[in-house]
TrEMBL record:
<protein>
    <submittedName>
        <fullName>2-dehydro-3-deoxyphosphogluconate aldolase/4-hydroxy-2-oxoglutarate aldolase</fullName>
    </submittedName>
</protein>
<keyword id="KW-0456">Lyase</keyword>
<dbReference type="InterPro" id="IPR013785">
    <property type="entry name" value="Aldolase_TIM"/>
</dbReference>
<keyword id="KW-0119">Carbohydrate metabolism</keyword>
<dbReference type="GO" id="GO:0016829">
    <property type="term" value="F:lyase activity"/>
</dbReference>
<comment type="similarity">
    <text>Belongs to the KHG/KDPG aldolase family.</text>
</comment>
<dbReference type="Pfam" id="PF01081">
    <property type="entry name" value="Aldolase"/>
</dbReference>
<dbReference type="InterPro" id="IPR000887">
    <property type="entry name" value="Aldlse_KDPG_KHG"/>
</dbReference>
<comment type="subunit">
    <text>Homotrimer.</text>
</comment>
<comment type="pathway">
    <text>Carbohydrate acid metabolism.</text>
</comment>
Length: 210
């Protein structure tokens, strides 16, 4: 999983008002070349969306905003491959690892980051990334913790993604830069596919340049 994340770099978090919107947005992202899709548990019937997507070989689907062990169980039963949280809950991490899934807990201080790593987090989600210092914070925290894999959550867009990619984190979590509210409201799935494709192209360009 970690090697696939490093290769594709991008994970898209989908947060919509209806499960139908979430599924259509996820499909639009896949058609734009996005491999990792996170369905947040703020989406009504999120586990049903995860179950439907888990049958599609184009995608590695996970659950986001997972705050309890009961939600971990629901997500994994539905077919989620990884569990993402905005915070660190050792119980959530422990159950995720016990069930053989990939754990991405959230943290925003050196103490939280190390605790999340020691608890078994495979990748530590730096959240809220911009507010805690962005790329400068990442460079600083890598000093004492160079062996920890990070996912950058917040602030990325098409204008600054090159800087995020150059940081060589394990992954970059993208939300509203692709899943735009106005496009969701108007069911403009082709435009979401187009934006997702532009993000995916940025990653491809980086690998071609290597």
């Amino acid at each position: 999983m970690i090697e696939e994340l490093r290769k594709h770099q991008l994970m898209v978090a989908i947060r919509t008002e209806t499960p139908e919107q979430a599924y259509m947005a996820a499909t639009a992202c896949m058609e734009g070349g996005i491999k990792f899709i996170e369905i947040t548990f703020t989406v009504p019937d999120a586990e049903e969306v995860i179950r439907k997507l888990s049958a599609d070989r184009r995608v590695e689907v996970g659950a986001g905003t997972v705050l309890s062990t009961s939600d971990v169980r629901k997500a994994l039963r539905a077919g989620a491959r990884y569990i993402v949280s905005p915070n660190l809950d050792e119980g959530v991490v422990a159950l995720t690892k016990k069930e053989g899934a990939f754990s991405i807990p959230g943290a925003c201080t050196p103490t939280e980051i190390y605790r999340a790593y020691k608890a078994g987090g495979d990748v530590i989600k730096l959240f809220p990334f911009v507010e805690i210092g962005g790329l400068d914070f990442l460079r600083t925290v890598r000093g004492p913790f160079p062996y920890i894999d990070y996912m950058l959550c917040g602030g990325v867009n098409l204008d600054n993604i090159s800087g995020y990619l150059a940081a060589r984190a394990a992954a970059i979590l993208v939300g509203s830069a692709i899943i735009k509210r106005d496009l969701i409201a108007s069911s403009d799935w082709p435009s979401i596919t187009e934006i997702a494709g532009k993000f995916a192209l940025k990653v491809q360009e980086l690998y071609v340049a290597k």
